[in-house]
Automatic annotation (TrEMBL):
GO terms for molecular function: DNA binding. Residues 9-62 form the HTH cro/C1-type domain. The keyword Signal does not apply. It comes from the Bacteria. Residues 246-273 form a coiled coil. This is Helix-turn-helix protein. SUPFAM superfamilies: lambda repressor-like DNA-binding domains (SSF47413), TPR-like (SSF48452). Keywords: Coiled coil. It comes from Tumebacillus permanentifrigoris. Pfam families: HTH_3 (PF01381). The keyword Coiled coil applies.
Length: 439
């Protein structure tokens, strides 16, 4: 009998949390069991039968486990393929079976991988309560998760909190990732994917230098492995980070234009839509509102061709950018039309709170131009209330300062002072979001 049996005995023993003494008591000596597990001796049939019984399985299960592992791995591939084909419910049904079988056969590594895939499938469906529950279960399971998987799980949990309307909890999850990323070297088998997920979250926290540092580590991996989509996405986030830092304008445009062109040439409309949207944002930041409009309208045309649920998360952004551009150009009627379209897209979506706050901010700007300062103040207060409710402290701070400036300009000094104080309190809360989350 090959060493497969010994390895399987050891795997099942460890999976059940049994010491060698517990497994071999009344069957054989600890020394004999150790030799069996290490393949140094061939166990007697009666020993195998007794060990299998104590482990709660048949002798056949012990002997054919490796073949069963291959089958379980294949079943997991089927589940992943179902997800890629947008059959998420089927994928979830398949992966639940994989989890059960991997657990029954003591494959802790396969079980962990399958559980992570299950979370990812629920993520694709936007079922955030399930993502939160399953992520927390894995993180507290005591399964001995490797650092890369732990980092991924904190990212999934943070994203689920963000889309569920609690930005503070999202940031605290992303802060937990900061303590794990140093353990992921460039030779980690999943380094590229892990780095990309990490920089996306760090960008969201406005840690642009951190983003650029890890993008520089990830880019050679993307190029060497010819993972073109990852290379485009890295170029995209580098360009956006440089834009936020107001550095190297030529490079940021070149990176995004190149990614857009390659995505279009490869027929990848979902990716192309993202890069068109972000090019529009770059032009908007540089006050080139006509080019910004051109790319936002291109983005919308691409979005209309894509039915992927993933894109639904981003479908509102070009409308917000368009409305902002029309306001800057003084085309207020067009801006109002786009705002109504944006409002319609936000209805019934729990993840719309950012745009639900941005809409009254747009309306406040139109009111300012019309000289309706009281309506401007009310709209800004409405936006501030939404930001505060969802713990969006960056934007809450900016909105409170804007409100204070408007009130101060109208001679409402007491209320203006209150708003400045609130802005300071938001800064303090921002610092608290840097504290890693605990479960």
């Amino acid at each position: 009998m090959s060493n497969t049996l010994g390895c399987n005995i050891r795997s099942f023993r460890l999976a059940k949390g049994m010491r060698q003494e517990e497994l071999c008591e009344g069957i054989c000596s600890v020394s004999q069991l150790s030799k069996i597990e290490n393949g140094k001796v061939q166990p007697k049939d009666e020993h195998v039968q007794a060990i299998a019984k104590r482990l709660g399985m048949s002798v056949k299960q012990l002997q054919v486990t490796e073949a069963r592992r291959d089958q379980i791995e294949q079943e997991m591939k089927f589940a992943i393929q179902a997800s890629k084909s947008n059959h998420e419910r089927q994928a979830i049904t398949l992966i639940e079976k994989v989890i059960e079988e991997a657990r029954n056969f003591g494959y802790e590594d396969l079980c962990a991988e399958a559980m992570y895939q299950q979370i990812h499938f629920y993520d694709n469906l936007g079922e955030w309560p399930q993502v939160i529950r399953l992520s927390q279960e894995m993180l507290t399971s005591g399964m001995g998760l490797e650092p890369g998987l732990s980092l991924d799980l904190w990212g999934e949990l943070g994203t689920a909190h963000y889309y569920s309307g609690n930005l503070n909890e999202a940031f605290r999850c992303y802060a937990r990732q900061e303590g794990l990323i140093d353990g992921i070297s460039t030779d980690h088998p999943q380094a590229l994917r892990i780095y990309i997920g990490y920089v996306a979250n760090q960008y969201f926290m406005r840690r642009y230098r951190e983003v650029l540092f890890y993008c520089e580590k990830a880019m050679p991996l993307a190029i060497a492995s010819q993972r073109h989509i990852y290379r485009w996405r890295l170029s995209n986030i580098i360009a956006l980070s440089l834009n936020r830092l107001r550095e190297d304008p030529q490079r940021r445009y070149e990176l995004l234009e190149s990614s857009l062109q390659e995505a279009e040439q490869n027929g990848n409309i979902a990716e192309a839509s993202q890069y068109a949207n972000n090019l529009g944002a770059l032009y908007y930041w540089d006050q080139d509102y006509d080019n910004a409009q051109r790319y936002q309208e291109l983005c919308i045309r691409y979005y209309d061709l894509v039915t992927d649920a993933f894109i639904d998360t981003y479908r509102r952004e070009p409308y917000y950018q368009l409305a902002s551009g029309f306001i800057q150009k003084g085309q207020y009627d067009q801006a109002k039309q786009i705002v109504e379209k944006l409002r319609e897209l936000c209805k019934g979506r729990i993840d719309s709170y950012m745009y639900n706050a941005r809409i009254p901010q747009l309306e406040a700007e139109i009111a300012r131009v019309d000289g309706r300062w009281q309506e401007q103040v009310q709209s800004l207060k409405q936006a501030l209330e939404i930001y505060e409710r969802h713990h969006v402290y960056f934007e809450a701070q900016e909105t409170a300062i804007r409100l204070a400036e408007v009130l101060e300009g109208r001679g409402e000094l007491s209320e203006a002072l209150q708003m400045y104080r609130r802005a300071v309190s938001y800064q303090q809360k921002l610092e608290e979001t840097r504290l890693p989350m605990t479960i």
